[in-house]
Amino acid sequence: MIPAESLAIFVLASLALAATPGPNVALIVGTSLKHGRRAGILTAMGVNVGVIVQLALVSAGLAYVVEAFSRHFDLVRYAGAAYLVFLAIQQWRHAGEGADMPAPSARAAFGRGLAVAFANPKTLLFHAAFLPQFVTDVQDPVPQIALLAAIFAAIALASDTLWAVVADHARTALKGRFTRLADRVSAGILLGGAAILLAAGRR
To answer: Any signal peptide, and if so, which residues (predicted)?
Structure first.
């Protein structure tokens, strides 16, 4: 059993990590600013399904999958950055169009989140190094890693949903003459997410 003190430290660390903006948050906020809360939350769900799959891989001890991501680290993150740039260009080009540019379907919004979650290999490598630090049962670490993964996943989903809701409130406040500005800020946030991916290193 993981000591309560270690578990509390893990929760605090997870809260800090989940609240730190990165490519996933950039996509969620950018989507909510442009298309509203529903699209933002669906995107957050897609992101977090990707995170849960990554956590499951770590929990199952599939070291060869982690190694595969590590081996193709740059290729994966470049692809992810290119995708975020593409979305940013689309939002910049259609800034201020509102109803003329329909929101992505539920499947498309979810798929965007899932794609960007997997386009950030550093997340998988980080979890592979982060979670085991809180494991006390080295003989059978899988149950404890699975518990830690579940806690982190719950915190990440709550945090990402909050980002989507806050961005939607900002979108509502900027409606009307500021719609174009909100859309361009959204595009800028997506570009920021791409820049984070491009700047990411293995360490």
So the answer is: 1-18
